[in-house]
Amino acid sequence: MGCFECCIKCLGGVPYASLVATILCFSGVALFCGCGHVALTGTVSILEQHFSTTPTDHALLSEVIQLMQYVIYGIASFFFLYGIILLAEGFYTTSAVKELHGEFKTTACGRCISGMFVFLTYVLGVAWLGVFGFSAVPVFMFYNIWSTCEVIKSYQANVTVPGDQICVDIRQYGIIPWNAVPGRACGPILENICNTNEFYMSYHLFIVACAGAGATVIALLIYMMATTYNYAVLKFKSREDCCTKF
């Protein structure tokens, strides 16, 4: 076997689906964790400066956000290891299915491990669908504030509708209590909030974090298809009466 044939054989053992899913998973998790962490910090800053000047009113929210930031660290570490493990499992099953290293051989333990990865990937896929939906909530909130600011700008030339009557009450979203002071911003004050760097950065970072969560969901869907296919082929070829070559 020449060098070219050897390279072609090695490339045939590369699990391209798992490789694409790993790259997409790493990128999505990095965007979600990095942008989400910074956006949460900016959100707390906006609340403290403009919507809840009393620290006790948003103490619970600050603790929850701090806990979420620690959870983000754990998510990033877990998916870094899990992506590497799934990629290694993809190399193993692809090599076994294509019989690149001699006669096909597999064990019940190997098939059990592959089945465990299939189940775990399905569970993570469902969980990340929830994360994706949850990450869209702050995007919706910031979009409402931004669109209200745009309405105020459009009414500046209309003297019949004063901009001071257009307000955003952040208490209606349930993130701070109803007795928080001031709790809402109106007219020029709200417009100034929208012009701050914290608002601009947090809004766009939440959008990127939501996109990262969506990319992770797509990566897990690819993992689901790849691991399910490999497990099914391994289980089929392990049968003694199997004579079909895939």
Write a structural description.
Its main location: membrane. This is Glycoprotein M6B. Belongs to the myelin proteolipid protein family. Pfam families: Myelin_PLP. Keywords: Membrane, Transmembrane, Transmembrane helix. Helix 2 (about 15-50) packs antiparallel against helix 3 and helix 2 runs antiparallel to helix 6. The two termini are about 25 Å apart. The protein is mostly helical. The chain has a two-stranded antiparallel sheet. It is built from 6 helices and 2 strands; from the N terminus they run ααααββαα. It is elongated. Helices cover about 75% and strands about 0% of the residues. The protein has helices at about 5-10, 15-50, 60-100, 110-155, 185-195, 195-235, and strands at about 165-170, 185.
User: What is the helix content?
Assistant: over 70%
User: Helix/strand-derived class?
Assistant: mainly alpha
| Distance, first to last CA | 23 Å
Strand content: under 5%
Regions with pLDDT < 50 over 5+ consecutive residues? Answer: 241-246
* Tally of individual helices: 6
Radius of gyration: 26 Å
Order of helices and strands: HHHHEEHH
> Numbering strands along the chain, what is their spatial order in the largest sheet?
1-2
Described by the principal axes of the CA atoms, the overall outline is elongated
**How does the major sheet shape up?**
2 strands, antiparallel
Number-wise, the strands total 2
Mean pLDDT: 81
Assembly state (oligomeric): single chain
Family: Belongs to the myelin proteolipid protein family.
Membrane topology: Multi-pass membrane protein
GO molecular function: structural constituent of myelin sheath
Keywords: Membrane, Transmembrane, Transmembrane helix
